[in-house]
Amino acid sequence: MTEKETTQITEMRNDGLGYTTIASRLGLSKDCVRSFCRTHNLRGRRAPSHVPQDLGKDYCKTCGKRLDHTPGKRKKQYCSDGCRMDWWNAHQDQVKRKAFYQFTCVCCGKSFSAYGNAKRSYCSHECYIKTRFKKEVSK
Description:
Layout: H1 3-14, H2 19-26, H3 30-39, H4 81-90, E1 100-104, E2 111-115, H5 125-132
Helix pairs in contact: 2-3
């Protein structure tokens, strides 16, 4: 467990969140969070019922900082671009990749697909080099 995670656990526990909620937000096991809380004297009961159940929307998904939401706008999920990129880099399996394009290689004629580039011409760097630096032999 990193130092960052320990401070996040302490903050969330002091805000009245339970072991399961903290564990799911930080991607840790419930037992790991519970044992940390017990060894650092963060035991006790959950906060009274005046704490809303959807409190998870008020914390950054990555670092657990509180988020300030602007009324009438979409709810924030991350406190900064760095946290947003860190979260998506750690959860690549959840990326919905839709930008696949089908092409035919200019050099070898092979059919291939590319992600995110609609103007691709070659299936590989080798084909690009063959076409780009093709020299005619003169005698």
